[in-house]
Design goal:
With 400 residues, the protein is of the alpha/beta class. It has helices at 15-27, 46-53, 72-78, 89-97, 103-110, 123-126, 129-140, 166-177, 212-223, 251-261, 303-306, 326-337, 378-399; strands at residues 4-9, 31-36, 81-87, 115-119, 144-145, 149-152, 158-162, 187-192, 197-200, 203-205, 227-232, 244-247, 267-270, 277-279, 297-299, 315-322, 341-346, 358-365, 370-377. The protein is globular, with a radius of gyration of 24 Å.
Amino acid sequence: MNPHIVLGVSGGIAAYKSVELLRGLVQRGAQVQVVLTRGAREFISPLTFAVLSGREVHTEVWGSGQTATVDHVALADWADLLIVAPATAHTMAKLANGLADDFLSTYFLAHRKPTLLAPAMESAMWEHAAVVANREILAHRGVRFVGPMSGPLASGHEGIGRMAEPLDILEESWKLLAQPSDLAGLRVLVTAGATREPVDPIRFVSNRSSGRMGYALAEAARDRGASVTLLSGASHLPAPARIRFLSFETSADLQTLLLQEFPESDVLVMAAAVADFIPRAEHERMHREQGDRTLHLDTGPDLLAGLAPLRRSQTVVAFAAETDDLEARGRRKMEKKGADLIVINDVGQAGIGFDADDNEVLILGRDGSREVVSRRPKRAVADKIWDAVRTARAAAVGKT
């Protein structure tokens, strides 16, 4: 494989690592066009990258004015992958918001192939609401991330924000270049987010699900070639691109959508956090002056069980959020729901599960299979789940 790669380098102390990354890309046979931002040139000379890549380094949209500049659209036709390493908070903000004031940001708007960002910044910046929002926008547009890692930072502080090591970026790049289309032809139905069950006209009972895991599953399936429908409950996440998107509020709304969509699907992944208990809602608003009230909760319907009469050869993946006795509880739920696979996450652990960027799960199969997926970004967990789905479908075909 001799891929064509655009390597964007933005202005951070980690820019020196990009030299090693460039060397690794070239050693693997890649043709690399380097693009430096103005900030990057404060840290490292374009000449270094030009010598290692064997190509003139692009810095400005208009070039020097003395020689013809390669048009960013033509470069987009040439490239198989865009890597930005390091990706600073400023660069991520420009890419997320469509700003185009230098060669890299202008090129990004023309680029239509995979994009990999290796963020590098101080911990406080990485955790700032604006940066969180920008990376969510980019992720939902299909941009992939590698890192950042925890460790010593340029400020002397310790924390998350170090750019991933060049070898890790290199390996992730090769995975993207070899992105499988192993779900092509499949019609995938994914549920995500939380249900909201009304207590009265202005109040509801819900849960802490953010929808991140379900959205990651939908995006991963899309990128692997599937035709995806995402049924989403309450979530602050934007609707992913190139995915059919339908929203629901209550578990009854979701049940209606499932009865409508499930018969035409090949795979159902039930990642939504559906209410186990439904309040008996008041038709009129409750007022404080009325004093203490008793809230009656009825057991909610098992939505997967309700789909049994409609099931043909679909592969069904259930989810279980548990705090103890994970495997035993998971296996019981899988059998009860008639699922082919169940994904269990320990919501009692900090930093994974509900409303977190990372997850750590146990995937159980009806055939007795068991796979522990260690802590990693939810998008990476999603790919592991789809790998398990492929294995389960292949085994089912082998039995027929």
